[in-house]
């Protein structure tokens, strides 16, 4: 397996701010790689470092083994789907898609043929003559995708590609992007702050926090075995237990993570802890019950159909011993 | 709001009155170009004639000021197009300390009374020992022409955003291609509008010109002098119509161009 993109201790500082701080990562060729993190965590800067719109303050970036030190954006075999799509408003859809070929000097006929091919790929056949202003948000997004793919990039970068779409469309596009990536076999690197999006689409996820990678792994690894308190909380809003509580819950005196859906409410003898219900949040598919135990709030996800206690009631808690994940972080 | 909602009568009358107040004097200018009375502006005109157009055409003293005005307006709006656009490009893309101050300083000349601009330029030319010429007039006009172009261009640059330029580079375009295929088409109508407005402003400028022209006279200055001398007065009105056309038509065109431009530029959002 080849490395499509390698970061070797890459930093990017803006004045005093370390937007990206000594990041090491390898993105495998043909993978669907997600950079997940809250805003300001450095994930977008990393994307811009790959596309070449930012230059590293330190370290090196390699794309397919080639050092990108002095290579400007227009000479990298990498294309981007921009967050706001950045379509050219004065060109019709066909010319937008064909733009990458036009600047390379491909003749009109060949580039328009290729543009139509790309439009068909994103299911926008027959939209070539429209202007971007005449398209819906979802259609513009597809045009941006077709435009970025027309140059046959070896790596496609997607900056919060689904951020501006409504929920229904977002879910449909998630499946479509995933299918497209598998069909084309090119490396997709996408940035998102939506953990659900990252987990459902990506083969590998890098969780960013304050300019550094907090954890990198498969979605299951990141979700089930968060390396740090930050990852546990950010990915799936897990219960983060301080060492004392972990001990009280039967683990070592270390920070640990306990998923809300891994906890069951139980009043029977198998209850491992007790808590007082402080809040309820109805989510449709279940109810998120907040309980106070040992001076700490613990969230429990009670599936629909299971009775939910009232606020103020006391309830026992139980879980499988394997669900208590002790984190590497001290 | 629907068109069948009629405004009250008083408001309609006030609007009509306001429009008449604004535009009736202009109609008079047109009317007096056709009067047979050439010593005073007598109303109503005793009779109507078109002979003043022929007279104006044959008056040798009209042509040099007209050429000068056209030349000055063309050069100063051309200069403003280059400098104003470059300035707008820099201001729209760069973020630096004091940026807002610089932006204000660029726009300030248009807020400054022309008489101040004129005086300061005159004394500056005197200190630098620069003799008055077409170029001193051009410099004077450029001070406000640049602002017009800058304002038009900077607004368009802002709408253009940086991601479109990045998208162009990302797709393999070099800076020249980005300028040619993305910036220019999006900036074009704003620049044309800015250039036309600048041309119109320069063409009828009097105050700054009087300080920087020396012995030469531009068309507006020629007209001012002509009004003082009561001889073939309607000729001045004929020239006034020419000035009106030379300034009004570009402004009208600029209005339609920027209006249309908003539709296309807004499409990216």
Description of the structure:
Chain B: Residues 66-254 form the ABC transmembrane type-1 domain. Chain B: InterPro entries: Bact_Polyamine_Transport, MetI-like, MetI-like_sf. The complex is a heterodimer of chains A (330) and B (269). Chain A is α+β, with helices and mostly antiparallel strands and 330 residues long. Chain A has two domains: 3-231, Rossmann fold (3-Layer(aba) Sandwich), CATH 3.40.50; 237-326, Beta Barrel (OB fold (Dihydrolipoamide Acetyltransferase, E2P)), CATH 2.40.50.140. Chain A is built from nine helices and 18 strands. Chain A has helices spanning 43-51, 93-102, 108-121, 137-149, 167-184, 195-201, 219-224, 229-234, 243-248; strands spanning 3-14, 17-28, 32-36, 58-63, 66-67, 78-81, 155-159, 187-192, 204-209, 212-217, 239-241, 256-258, 264-265, 273-282, 286-293, 296-303, 314-318, 325-326. A six-stranded mixed beta sheet of chain A has the order 6-7-8-3-9-10, sandwiched between helices. A five-stranded antiparallel beta sheet of chain A has the order 13-17-14-15-16, with no helix packed on it. A four-stranded antiparallel beta sheet of chain A has the order 2-1-4-5, with helices on one face. In chain A, α3 packs across α4. Chain A is elongated and about 75 Å long. Chain B has helices spanning 9-32, 51-58, 63-93, 99-111, 114-128, 134-170, 175-203, 207-212, 219-228, 233-265. Chain B has one domain (56-268): MetI-like (MetI-like fold), CATH 1.10.3720.
First-to-last CA distance of chain A? 34 Å
Which CATH architecture of the largest domain in chain A would you pick?
A: 3-Layer(aba) Sandwich
Structural class of chain B: mainly alpha
User: In the CATH scheme, what's the topology name of the largest domain in chain A?
Assistant: Rossmann fold
Low-confidence stretches of chain B: 261-269
The spatial strand order of the largest sheet of chain A comes to 6-7-8-3-9-10
Count up the domains of chain B: 1
| Uncertain ranges of chain A | none
Number of strands of chain B: 0
Helicity level of chain A, as a percent range?
25-40%
H-E order of chain A: EEEHEEEHHHEHEHEEHHEHEEEEEEE
Report mean pLDDT of chain A, rounded to a whole number: 91
Continuous helix count of chain A = 9
Kindly report the greatest chain-chain contact and the residue count on each side. A-B, 28 and 23 residues
Strand content of chain A: 25-35%
Bulk shape of chain A: elongated
How many strands appear in the DSSP assignment of chain A?
Answer: 18
CATH C-level label of the largest domain in chain A: Alpha Beta
Residues in helices of chain B, as a percent range: over 70%
What's the alpha carbon Rg of chain A, rounded to whole Å? 23 Å
CATH superfamily of chain B, by name, is MetI-like
Domain ABC transporter (chain A): 5-235
InterPro entries (chain A): AAA+_ATPase, ABC_SmlMolc_Importer, ABC_transporter-like_ATP-bd, ABC_transporter-like_CS, Mo/tungstate-bd_C_term_dom, P-loop_NTPase, Transp-assoc_OB_typ2
Keywords (chain A): ATP-binding, Nucleotide-binding, Transport
Organism (chain A): Albidovulum sediminis
């Amino acid at each position: 397996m080849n490395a499509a993109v390698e970061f070797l201790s890459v930093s990017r500082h803006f004045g005093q701010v370390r937007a990206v701080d000594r990041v090491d990562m390898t993105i495998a060729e043909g993978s669907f790689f997600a950079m997940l993190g809250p805003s300001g965590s450095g994930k977008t800067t990393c994307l811009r470092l790959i596309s070449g719109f930012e230059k590293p303050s330190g370290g090196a970036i390699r794309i397919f083994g080639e050092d990108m030190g002095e290579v400007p954006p227009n000479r990298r075999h990498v294309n981007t789907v921009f967050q706001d799509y950045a379509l050219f408003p004065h060109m019709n859809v066909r010319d937008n898609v064909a733009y990458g070929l036009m600047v390379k000097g491909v003749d009109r006929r060949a580039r328009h043929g290729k543009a139509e091919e790309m439009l068909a790929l994103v299911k926008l056949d027959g939209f070539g003559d429209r202007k971007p202003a005449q398209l819906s948000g979802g259609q513009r997004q597809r045009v941006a995708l077709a435009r970025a793919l027309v140059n046959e990039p070896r790596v496609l970068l997607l900056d919060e590609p689904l951020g501006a779409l409504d929920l229904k469309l977002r879910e449909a596009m998630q499946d479509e992007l995933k299918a497209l990536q598998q069909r084309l076999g090119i490396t997709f690197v996408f940035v998102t702050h939506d953990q659900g999006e990252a987990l459902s689409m990506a083969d590998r996820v890098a969780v960013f926090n304050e300019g550094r990678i907090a954890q990198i792994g498969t979605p299951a690894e990141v979700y089930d075995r968060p390396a740090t308190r930050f990852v546990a909380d950010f990915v799936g809003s897990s219960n983060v237990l301080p060492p004392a509580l972990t001990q009280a819950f039967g683990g070592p005196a270390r920070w640990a993570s306990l998923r809300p859906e891994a906890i069951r409410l139980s009043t029977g003898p198998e209850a491992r802890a007790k808590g007082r219900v402080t809040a309820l949040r109805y989510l449709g598919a279940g109810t998120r019950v907040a309980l106070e135990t040992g001076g700490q709030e613990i969230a429990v996800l009670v599936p629909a159909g299971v009775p939910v206690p009232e606020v103020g009631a006391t309830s026992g808690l139980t879980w499988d011993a394997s669900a208590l994940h002790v984190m590497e972080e001290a | 709001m629907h068109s069948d909602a009629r405004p009250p009568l008083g408001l309609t009358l006030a609007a009509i009155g306001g429009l008449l107040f604004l535009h009736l004097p202009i109609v008079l200018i047109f009317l007096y170009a056709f009067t047979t009375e050439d010593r005073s502006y007598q109303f109503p005109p005793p009779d109507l004639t078109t002979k003043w157009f022929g007279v104006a055409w044959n008056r040798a003293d009209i042509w040099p000021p007209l050429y000068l005005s056209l030349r000055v307006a063309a050069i100063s709006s051309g200069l403003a197009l280059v400098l104003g656009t470059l300035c707008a490009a820099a201001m729209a893309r760069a973020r630096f300390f004091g940026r807002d101050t610089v932006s204000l300083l660029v726009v300030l000349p248009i807020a400054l009374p022309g008489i101040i601009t004129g005086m300061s330029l005159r004394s500056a030319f005197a200190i630098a020992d620069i003799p008055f010429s077409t170029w001193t007039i051009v410099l004077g006009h450029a001070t406000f022409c640049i602002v017009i172009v800058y304002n038009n261009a900077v607004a368009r640059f802002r709408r253009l955003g940086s991601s479109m330029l990045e998208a162009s580079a990302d797709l393999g375009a070099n800076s020249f291609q980005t300028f040619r295929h993305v910036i220019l088409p999006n900036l074009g109508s704003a620049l044309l509008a800015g250039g036309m407005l600048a041309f119109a402003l320069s063409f009828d400028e009097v105050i700054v010109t009087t300080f920087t022209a020396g012995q030469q006279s531009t068309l507006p200055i020629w007209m001012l002098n002509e009004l003082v001398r009561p001889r073939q007065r309607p000729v001045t009105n004929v020239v006034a119509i020419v000035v009106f056309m030379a300034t009004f038509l570009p402004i009208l065109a600029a209005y339609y161009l920027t209006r249309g431009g908003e539709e296309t530029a807004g499409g990216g959002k």
